[in-house]
């Protein structure tokens, strides 16, 4: 059965070399970012570039944590992301349950209208949503972030969860109904627990989407107290190229990115599920 | 065993309630909170965007907005900066879509064929996808700085340039830097989609082709390409939509500068609305962009569907 001819070995080596070269291009910028975050500001942008700082320092992290109020922004992002994700999951799983378990007039029409939300570019909405938020007095507030983050994630989550719910045998539902269980019980006690992988996928995508969101926050936030992490990091980097303390910027960036990478590494398989749900159904 | 159980929950509850054709209330109650929020914050703003684009919209105070008809649209078509932004957007699409598809597919194929360390490679290639746009945009601004890593690698290491390119200070080099970020961040995503699609290719098919004496290229064309066609359509359409929506990277790497030279449609729209407070004109640009994206998506679906015969949705 061993078919490992010399030609096959060569092919394998070539393949691994190509993959490694590509992976280096992918990872080098991150390693450089980490290196700079430990480099004293005077040695940033020297030639040749230092990947491993000669005199490593934690000053940048200290500055990011103390002087620049990154912890406050971190906390803001965390709270906004948790609340938005919880609300979005609740509302979209309820909608998905209705679509997956009932036959009713206008069902597919309503579902199609929801799908419009997947196709409308967020930018078309940016201006009128800003005007709406202004009228509702939601500018510069946590609620202004949460309401629109939840709204923006409803369509995708409903679409995703409907698929998961429909893959649960309807017979279970019927058996529970015969036992006298109400609709809410069947939703809360039966469907949700059985759809945990689907809920996990939706949770991760929603949470990371909100955690990284920039444009809406940029548009409605002025108050430093409410700033989310992406906004705070952007302010550290300023607008021009001069006098940017890159070490501090990248220390703050590392603080923002590392939780995401950990979540990704731990929950990898849910990422793949979420991505392919779109591709297969699309 | 279960195949005879075809009654839906609704039919069962209707039968028990005795009212056979009654419209159920429960699903509407479950839909209500989400649908109301969706209607108020997504559907209503869509109509508002279209409406605003016909006005000289006043956001400040109680000033009356003036109806302009199609003036904002006419203005866009006569606006040189609009066309420059449009050109840059097209450049970005042209420069990023094809490489993302080809590289993503290449990596997926390399990984698909029983590569050792496949999980590790998958993570490494996907890492840029999960990292926030803000962080990678600032990172690339740093890499493309005058004394940055890119100039060092191209100049001092490989001697391809003199190593003193001011990437972000000129229109085309700026667009190249922005596009480089787009490709780097996107390859892992298309790789993941293609990898999943390749997993759906039945091994028996590949083996049958092998037994029939098909070489690697023939097998790729006869077995692999048909199997990933739906994924290819999906990736292409998503990348076109994403390309038209490029904003954060431009905003943070060049800010549209120097002097608006690297503006794309969205940075220009953002500037008109939130810099100039010209909401009507900004809305008109957003509507034009949306119509463009829609038209292109429909066109692509048609194209893929025609070539495919049976359709993409399988």
From TrEMBL, chain A:
<feature type="transmembrane region" description="Helical">
    <location>
        <begin position="244"/>
        <end position="267"/>
    </location>
</feature>
<feature type="transmembrane region" description="Helical">
    <location>
        <begin position="194"/>
        <end position="211"/>
    </location>
</feature>
<keyword id="KW-1003">Cell membrane</keyword>
<dbReference type="GO" id="GO:0005886">
    <property type="term" value="C:plasma membrane"/>
</dbReference>
<dbReference type="InterPro" id="IPR000515">
    <property type="entry name" value="MetI-like"/>
</dbReference>
<protein>
    <submittedName>
        <fullName>Sugar ABC transporter permease</fullName>
    </submittedName>
</protein>
<feature type="transmembrane region" description="Helical">
    <location>
        <begin position="142"/>
        <end position="161"/>
    </location>
</feature>
<dbReference type="GO" id="GO:0055085">
    <property type="term" value="P:transmembrane transport"/>
</dbReference>
<feature type="transmembrane region" description="Helical">
    <location>
        <begin position="78"/>
        <end position="103"/>
    </location>
</feature>
<dbReference type="Pfam" id="PF00528">
    <property type="entry name" value="BPD_transp_1"/>
</dbReference>
<keyword id="KW-0472">Membrane</keyword>
<dbReference type="InterPro" id="IPR035906">
    <property type="entry name" value="MetI-like_sf"/>
</dbReference>
<keyword id="KW-0813">Transport</keyword>
<feature type="domain" description="ABC transmembrane type-1">
    <location>
        <begin position="74"/>
        <end position="267"/>
    </location>
</feature>
<comment type="similarity">
    <text>Belongs to the binding-protein-dependent transport system permease family.</text>
</comment>
<feature type="transmembrane region" description="Helical">
    <location>
        <begin position="110"/>
        <end position="130"/>
    </location>
</feature>
<feature type="transmembrane region" description="Helical">
    <location>
        <begin position="12"/>
        <end position="34"/>
    </location>
</feature>
<keyword id="KW-1133">Transmembrane helix</keyword>
<keyword id="KW-0812">Transmembrane</keyword>
From TrEMBL, chain B:
<dbReference type="GO" id="GO:0055085">
    <property type="term" value="P:transmembrane transport"/>
</dbReference>
<keyword id="KW-1003">Cell membrane</keyword>
<dbReference type="InterPro" id="IPR000515">
    <property type="entry name" value="MetI-like"/>
</dbReference>
<dbReference type="InterPro" id="IPR035906">
    <property type="entry name" value="MetI-like_sf"/>
</dbReference>
<dbReference type="Pfam" id="PF00528">
    <property type="entry name" value="BPD_transp_1"/>
</dbReference>
<protein>
    <submittedName>
        <fullName>ABC transporter permease</fullName>
    </submittedName>
</protein>
<feature type="domain" description="ABC transmembrane type-1">
    <location>
        <begin position="86"/>
        <end position="300"/>
    </location>
</feature>
<keyword id="KW-0472">Membrane</keyword>
<feature type="transmembrane region" description="Helical">
    <location>
        <begin position="90"/>
        <end position="111"/>
    </location>
</feature>
<keyword id="KW-1133">Transmembrane helix</keyword>
<feature type="transmembrane region" description="Helical">
    <location>
        <begin position="25"/>
        <end position="46"/>
    </location>
</feature>
<comment type="similarity">
    <text>Belongs to the binding-protein-dependent transport system permease family.</text>
</comment>
<feature type="transmembrane region" description="Helical">
    <location>
        <begin position="172"/>
        <end position="198"/>
    </location>
</feature>
<feature type="transmembrane region" description="Helical">
    <location>
        <begin position="123"/>
        <end position="144"/>
    </location>
</feature>
<feature type="transmembrane region" description="Helical">
    <location>
        <begin position="230"/>
        <end position="253"/>
    </location>
</feature>
<keyword id="KW-0813">Transport</keyword>
<dbReference type="InterPro" id="IPR051393">
    <property type="entry name" value="ABC_transporter_permease"/>
</dbReference>
<feature type="transmembrane region" description="Helical">
    <location>
        <begin position="279"/>
        <end position="299"/>
    </location>
</feature>
<keyword id="KW-0812">Transmembrane</keyword>
<dbReference type="GO" id="GO:0005886">
    <property type="term" value="C:plasma membrane"/>
</dbReference>
């Amino acid at each position: 059965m061993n078919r490992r001819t010399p030609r096959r070995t060569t092919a394998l080596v070539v393949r691994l070399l190509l993959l490694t070269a590509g992976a280096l291009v992918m990872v080098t910028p991150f390693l450089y970012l980490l290196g700079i975050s430990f480099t004293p500001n005077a040695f940033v942008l020297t030639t040749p570039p230092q990947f491993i700082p000669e005199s490593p320092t934690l000053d940048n992290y200290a500055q990011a944590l103390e002087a620049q109020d990154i912890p406050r922004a971190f906390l803001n992002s965390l709270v906004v992301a948790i609340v938005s994700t919880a609300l979005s999951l609740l509302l979209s799983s309820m909608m998905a349950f209705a679509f997956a378990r009932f036959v009713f007039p206008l069902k597919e029409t309503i579902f199609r209208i929801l799908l419009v939300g997947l196709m409308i570019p967020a930018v078309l909405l940016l201006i009128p949503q800003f005007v709406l938020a202004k009228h509702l007095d939601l500018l510069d507030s946590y609620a202004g972030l949460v309401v629109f983050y939840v709204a923006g994630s409803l369509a995708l989550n409903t679409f995703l969860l409907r698929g998961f719910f429909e893959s649960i045998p309807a017979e279970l539902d019927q058996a529970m109904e015969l036992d006298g269980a109400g609709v809410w019980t069947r939703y809360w006690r039966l469907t949700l627990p059985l759809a945990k992988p689907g809920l996990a996928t939706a949770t991760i995508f929603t949470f990371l989407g909100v955690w990284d969101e920039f444009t809406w926050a940029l548009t409605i936030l002025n108050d430093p107290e409410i700033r989310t992490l992406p906004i705070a990091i952007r302010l550290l980097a300023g607008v021009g190229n001069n006098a940017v303390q890159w070490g501090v910027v990248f220390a703050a960036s590392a603080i923002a990115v590392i939780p995401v990478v950990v979540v990704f590494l731990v929950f990898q398989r849910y990422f793949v599920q979420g991505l392919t749900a779109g591709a297969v159904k699309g | 065993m279960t195949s005879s159980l075809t009654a839906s929950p609704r039919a069962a509850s209707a039968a028990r309630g005795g009212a056979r054709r009654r419209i159920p209330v429960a699903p509407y109650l479950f839909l209500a909170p989400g649908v109301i929020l969706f209607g108020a914050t997504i559907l209503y703003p869509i109509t508002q965007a279209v409406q605003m684009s016909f006005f000289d919209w006043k956001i400040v105070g109680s000033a009356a907005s003036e109806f302009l008809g199609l003036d904002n649209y006419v203005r866009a078509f006569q606006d040189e900066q609009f066309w420059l932004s449009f050109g840059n957007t097209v450049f970005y699409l042209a420069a990023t879509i094809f490489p993302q598809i080809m590289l993503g597919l290449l990596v997926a194929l390399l990984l698909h064929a029983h590569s050792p360390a496949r999980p590790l490679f998958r993570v490494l290639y996907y890492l840029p996808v999960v990292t926030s746009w803000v962080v990678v945009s600032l990172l690339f601004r740093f890499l493309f700085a005058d004394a940055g890593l890119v100039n060092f690698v191209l100049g001092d290491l490989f001697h391809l340039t003199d190593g003193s390119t001011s990437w972000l200070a000129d229109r085309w080099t700026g667009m190249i830097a922005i596009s480089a970020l787009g490709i780097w961040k996107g390859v892992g995503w298309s790789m993941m989609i293609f990898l999943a699609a390749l997993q759906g290719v039945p091994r028996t098919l590949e083996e049958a082709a092998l037994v029939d004496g098909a070489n690697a290229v023939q097998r790729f064309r006869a077995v692999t390409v048909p199997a990933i066609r739906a994924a290819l359509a999906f990736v292409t359409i998503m990348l076109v939509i994403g390309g038209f929506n490029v904003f954060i990277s431009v905003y943070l790497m060049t800010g549209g500068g120097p002097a608006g030279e690297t503006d794309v449609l969205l940075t220009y729209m953002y500037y008109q609305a939130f810099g100039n407070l010209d909401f009507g004109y900004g809305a008109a640009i957003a509507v034009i962009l949306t119509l463009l994206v829609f038209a292109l998506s429909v066109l692509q679906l048609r194209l893929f569907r025609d070539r495919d015969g049976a359709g993409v949705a399988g």
